[in-house]
Amino acid sequence: MPRGFGLCGGHSAGALTEETTTMHDHRKLGRELALFDTDPLIGAGLPYWLPDGAVVRHALEEYIRTAERKAGYRHVYSPVLGKRELYEISGHWSHYSDDMFPPMDLGAEQVVLRPSLCPHHALIYRSRSHSYRELPLRMAELGGMYRSELSGVLGGLTRVRAIQLNDAHIFCTLDQVADEAGAALEMIRRAYEALGIGAARYRLSLPGPGGKYVAAPEKWERSVALLTEVLDRSGLPYEAAEGEAAFYGPKIDVQVVDGLGRESTLSTVQVDFHQPERFDLRYIGADGAKHRPVMVHRSIIGSVERAVAHLIEEHGGAFPAWLSPTQVVVLPISEAELRHAEALARRCADLGLRAELAGPERGSLGARIREARLVPYQAVIGAREAADDRVALRLRDGRRLDPLPAEDVLDRIGALVGAHRTDLWDPASPTSGRA
Predict the structure, then answer these.
(1) What is the average pLDDT score of the chain?
(2) Nearest CA to 57 among 146, 164, 160?
(3) 3-state secondary structure of 102
(4) At what angle do helices 177-195 and 217-234 cross, to 10 degrees?
(5) Counting C-beta atoms within 10 Å of the first and last residue's C-beta, which end of the chain has fewer, N or C?
(6) Are the CB atoms for 247 and 5 separated by under 8 Å?
(7) Which phi-psi region, left, alpha or beta, contains residue 218 (left: φ > 0; alpha: ψ -120 to 50)?
(8) Looking at residue 44, what DSSP letter applies?
(9) Sign of CA dihedral 78, 83, 89, 91
């Protein structure tokens, strides 16, 4: 991600060791696991998602949409194109045009692929009148945007030209900013817990010498003070970094580190006094007069592409169960149990679990278990299990559970998946695991 422009600009879930997780390269592993790929005819920096990768992406998107709905966000859709004039008003054209795609002529107008969603959301806010009683108004979108990245910096999913961004903008009063920004940080914390990842550090990103920033010293001072208050109130350790701010304001960046020690920004919270003024955004206050709202930008998981890249490298493909392309693999020991195994796979599907049947035609039981080593749950069915409607469950981390009623197993797995847990089995469960 280019410097000076915001995104709103852990532990492995499997039995893989810390040493092996440092060796994961998402570009190599993503192709080996058939998650994503590229083609020169589509173009550099424009990856496509294969079926298993699309499942991971969809699960991630649904998680964040659900979390946003619960937090009071309203979702919108906005077009990926906009008139050049829109970005001239927002300030992107004068501060960021080098990283935007060239304008396209449509008759007497010029349109461009958007580099950010915030100008569109500002116009959506402006399209209706608003009272102070509606604020904070939280607007969210998982939307596409485009950056004209140079070929030399493109790589895998981390530096791409077409980005699907988990973006949101909160329009609020000045005295609501700190609470809204703090709530966004808490959403980030909960998301990282569900994803099984951790923040390397929190950064207060400030303007630096020589950068292209909006010239409004008073607004910058006020924004920095607000974000500093939010960080101090949260109790999170943080570092200030000059030269990393967005062109319109400072931001809190949540940094992650890959196996090779390379740092990048995954999530961000920003305070913006600039665009509400540029777009003349207003709300009617308790006094009946018009007032200017503040715009808080926040991205919980950043771009879907970068989030999935980090998840691949963090977990080595052994994703938390709720994210795994296949959550349950059903393993009949012989042809005699095949019909029962097929019925169990259908029961999984009826409960919303992603299940796959791996029958004896795919090799010995040991070979099938090794093939499914990244699948969180391996449901082994022998003659005794088929007769009693039980399952001998093997967990990805190597634990083997005593045979349990199939209904009990599926209910427990469904509960863990539905709660977005990273542990594979409830430690409070009376069922004992054996290595």
Answers:
(1) 89
(2) 164
(3) coil
(4) 50
(5) C
(6) yes
(7) alpha
(8) T
(9) positive
Tell me the per-residue pLDDT of 112-157, one tens digit each, with 9 for 90 and over: 999 999 999 999 999 999 999 999 999 999 999 999 888 777 888 9
Task: Write out pLDDT tens, residues 386-424.
Answer: 999 999 999 999 999 999 999 999 999 999 999 999 999
Beta bridge partners of 401: 433
Cβ pair 28, 22 in contact under 8 A: no
The answer to whether 121 and 139 have CB atoms below 8 angstroms apart is yes
Q: pLDDT, tens digit, for every residue of 110-119?
A: 999 999 999 9
Q: How far apart (Å, rounded) are the C-alpha atoms in residues 26 and 120?
A: 32
| Pairing assessment for the beta strands 201-206 and 162-172 based on DSSP bridges | unpaired
Are the C-beta atoms of residues 239 and 210 closer than 8 Å to each other? Answer: no
Q: Which two tokens stand for residue 384?
A: 């005794």
For residue 394, the cross-strand partners are 378, 400
Contacts of 371 (CB under 8 A, 6+ apart): 358, 362, 363
| pLDDT over 90 (residue 3) | no
Read off the DSSP letter of residue 246: B
CA angle (96 as vertex; 223, 226 as ends), nearest 5: 5
Q: What is the pTM of this model?
A: 0.89
pLDDT number for residue 213: 78
CA dist 342 and 278 (Å) reads: 60
- Compute the residue count for the chain: 435
CA distance 408 to 187: 32
- In whole angstroms, what is the distance from residue 361 CA to residue 191 CA? 40
Residues with Cβ within 8 Å of residue 143, at least 6 apart in sequence: 77, 78, 80, 117, 120, 164, 165, 167
Residues 6+ apart with CB under 8 A from 359: 332, 335, 338, 341
CB neighbourhood size of 345 (10 A): 19
Question: Which one, of 349, 331, 433, lies nearest residue 391 by Cα?
Answer: 331
Cβ-count burial of 167 within 10 angstroms (0-12 exposed, 13-18 middle, 19+ buried)?
Answer: buried
Q: How far apart are the first and last CA of the chain?
A: 44
Closest among 367, 65, 314 to 199, alpha carbons compared: 314
Residues 219, 246: contact at Cβ < 8 Å?
Answer: no
Report the alpha-carbon distance of residue 110 to residue 247 in Å, rounded.
Answer: 23
- Tens of pLDDT, residue by residue over 362-381, are 999 999 999 999 999 999 99
CA distances to 95, 218, 221, 243 from 208, rounded to whole Å, are 14, 16, 13, 4
